[in-house]
Design brief:
TIM Barrel; 2 domains; five-stranded parallel sheet; 5 strands; about 10% strand
Length: about 170
């Protein structure tokens, strides 16, 4: 039998008891199994990539228990919204990628207040300006990431790196 399915089938009675006790739908969290799979994943990549640090995308399962377990295990978290950013900060994660589009001034301010833990992936020149303002207001400097595209020619009205003197 499948090595991933068999342990769950062996616990079918436990799952049915939980469903009868707590009603359905019911989400059960097996931290031991999650962390075993996380360790397996990490071994597969860290043996080939120096300084490998996986980041769990909160949007794939927005349970604070899952995020906290992985953060405690040493993984970083990938937050794509302000709600996810707040959750990631609350877990105590040491490395947080803030990757979502359309970040608000308030969300960028939270990121700036947590510099050293949060790396913002900037999506636009306007966002870079808002991030600069948030960092200045927090009295800090931030490391950021930027997304580059391989467009052959800029669209009409689009700012380019050469427009900025780069």
């Amino acid at each position: 039998m499948d090595r991933y399915l068999a342990p769950h089938l062996d616990r079918a009675a436990d799952y049915l008891q939980a469903a009868n006790s707590h009603q359905t739908p019911l989400y059960l969290f097996d931290a031991e199994r999650l962390l075993a799979r996380a360790a397996e994943f990490e071994r597969a990549f860290s043996s080939r990539i120096e300084n490998f640090l996986p980041h769990f995308a909160i949007k794939s399962c927005n349970s604070p228990l899952v995020a906290a377990a992985l953060a405690d295990f040493g993984w970083g978290l990938d937050a794509s919204s302000g709600v996810e950013l707040s959750m990631a900060i609350e877990t105590g994660a040491k490395s947080i990628l803030f990757t979502g589009p359309g970040k608000t001034v308030g969300e960028l301010a939270i990121a700036a207040q947590n510099q050293g833990r949060v790396l913002v992936m900037a999506d636009s020149f306007g966002e870079l300006q808002r991030l600069h303002e948030a960092a200045s207001a927090a009295g800090t400097r931030l490391e950021i990431g930027v997304r580059l595209t391989n467009a052959l020619a800029p669209s009409a009205g689009q700012t380019t790196l050469s427009d900025l003197g780069a």
